[in-house]
Amino acid sequence: MKTFECPACGKGRVAPRGGKGRSFPYKQVPALEIADDFEIPTCDACGEMFIGAILAKKLDAHLERRYARLLAAAVKSAIKKIAEHARQQELEQLLGLSHGYLSKLRNGKKEPSPALVGELMFEAVDRGAQTVIVGLGGTATVDGGTGAAPEIAKKNIAMPIEYAIPKVHDYLVSEGVRDDVVLIASGGLRTADDIAKAIALGADGCVVATAEAVAVGCTHCGNCERGRGCQVGITTTDPELSRFIEPEWGETRIVNLYTAWTKRLRSIIAGFGLKSVRDLRGRKDLLVRHM
Amino acid sequence: MADAPWHSLSEVKALGAADKFDLGVTSATKRILPHLLDRTLDGVRRFAKAVVAQLRLLDFAHRVNLPRKLGKGFVVHDVYATRLGDAIAKAHLEGTYKTTWYVKLTIISAGGRRVFVLSLHCLMDPIRRADGTTLSPTWKESQ
How large is the ipTM? Predict the structure, then answer.
């Protein structure tokens, strides 16, 4: 079946064709580009492409190679950044990973995954940790609260917290260790309602960073680490720039933020007839989907 | 509006079970991928196969006739609106509430008969099925 009439439009003929700029969502990557010379049966009239069983396997292998390269580049860059402060071997020891594990991640032979987080958690418990705190995503846990996490990391690595929190919560419940673990969520939490939702999905609590920075005037320009630092004086060591923020004024703004959030959170909890935030944990049944 | 599918549902299911089906990329691949647990093309095919296997005549909604440019007559698409069982949703989807789906398919004979699944995505609007029942969306793709 080399060419055939297009079943989608009835106007053109479908034949294997290459092309520029073709991409597919793949795993966590929203658009992974495929090679220009990779031939996919395509209609010359409507442009629709068709994928059969054999081609799907071939295309999956092609995308997997590209995905591994992309992921390896992201991990390589992250390890390079950390390496300025600690040697790879020390990092592996610190994390309780086997020798060469980070190299495997860097070379794309292993994929950073929730399983790695699980391994780290159990390793910590084995070594006598009283409490394990897992931070999920968010600038508070990945870049010190600057809201400047690399775009590639935000969009392509791990998963949205709406999916991640219930997955972790349910897993911990099924393993019977839910109360031994404190699950802290972060990432895109901008209001008290967001916090209530994260807790209802299964988190014990949340950390926020960007919201606080915005409360004291952050414009989210992403220049925290460049030049003299923050233009409004939040993340800077420059004495001139740091004068832009008056500590008392900043304190008032942060207090106002948390006071407003506390009131809203109380009203949400009272609205559900609950006694405390703890009663809200894991109550996915209270969340309503809006169409 | 025709009240029966143009293409025999049993043939569609048999071809689907034999892996003799192709997926349109625009509406039957790219739109599904973000919702799957296994976000690969193999994952999409397994999901599409499961959906086709559970289609019933009750799910049939209407036909779409496209005039042929190269030959005579029409290319006929059968449209189904189906509610997935819990087992399929659990096995394949991120979120078991994603149960209402729109399926548009046709069969062509070039080089042996094959099913072409042209659309497979969430139900966007309530759809009236041929048996008079209406299926309403339970989710949107933005969720």
Answer: 0.88
